[in-house]
Amino acid sequence: MAAEIAHTLVLLDPEAGTWERADPLAPQLRVDDLAPHRGDGIFETVLVSNADGRGPQAHARAAHLERFGQSARMLDLPAPDPEVWDAALDAASADFAAANPDIELFSVRYALSRGLDRPAGWVLTIPIEEKYPRQRREGVRVRSADRGYEAYFGQSAPWALIGAKTLSYATNMASGRWAQANGADEVLYFSHDGIALEGPSSNLIIRRGDELITPDPKAGLLHGTTQRTLFERAAEAGFLCSYQDLCAQDVAAADAAWMVSSVRMAVPIIAFDDTELTHDAGFTERMHGWVLASS
Ligand code: PLP
């Protein structure tokens, strides 16, 4: 039997600006909190590596915190104090690394709920799902799926919270099950008018020669921290990186394509609907190196 992983939890009082370590196996959240009932809150999932005795390193830390603040603004939640959340992230990561010195890669999920009479926050370590290391090597089969709104709908519909990382992920999870029931691993959402958006928990990047292209976040998707890191590094390496509207034919005709996110890093797309895509393993490796070298 695999050894039990010891997870760590830090609870935050966002109004008081304080945090404390807590038992991840003990009950913590009130049943009347608005997070379990309405998904009324926000979260981030950060990749943390703990290799070569350097201690835990959170990747894209600043970009995650910046997006957390942006999500809070969109939901009219109190602005998260970066110092407090940073300290809580470090405490949870350090405790996890001390208890699990052999685990080189894990993730930390932090969340802010509207709570009930006051906001509640927590920071919890989460294992990297077993499927991801395999998917990084072998790739994923992706199916297109209509997200049900027109591209750029969020620009005129702030209440739709498009581009905020909210705790309401039931439809995202359902899309994954639908993909699997239909012979694929992942869904790639398209707007109702046919513009590529994102996966249920990842962004799309395609390669055309020396050009990397990703959908414009304003079209109706979450602006990914991993995509941003990859674009920064790729631009330094001489690639032309841009945000563009892409249709299904652009994905099918790409030289290579990836689903990218904090816990995936970059997973190559080996099939898109009925089209087989080329798997550029060398470039995928290079992308992993860029993510792991980022702070
Ligand atoms: N899009 C959605 C809907 C997501 O949930 C995520 C991450 O979970 C991403 C994109 C990728 O974002 P990141 O690279 O910051 O992990």
UniProtKB/TrEMBL annotation:
A single cellular component GO annotation: cytosol
UniProt key word Lyase: yes
Record EC number: 4.1.3.38
GO biological process: carboxylic acid biosynthetic process
InterPro entries: Aminotrans_IV, Aminotransferase-like, BCAT-like_C, BCAT-like_N, Class-IV_PLP-Dep_Aminotrnsfr
Enzyme class: lyase
Recorded GO MF terms: 4-amino-4-deoxychorismate lyase activity
Keywords, alphabetical: Lyase
Gene3D superfamilies with a match to the protein in the record: 3.30.470.10, D-amino Acid Aminotransferase, subunit A, domain 2 (3.20.10.10)
Cytoplasm in keyword set: no
Family membership noted in the UniProt record: Belongs to the class-IV pyridoxal-phosphate-dependent aminotransferase family.
Official protein name in the record: Aminodeoxychorismate lyase
Organism: Brevibacterium rongguiense
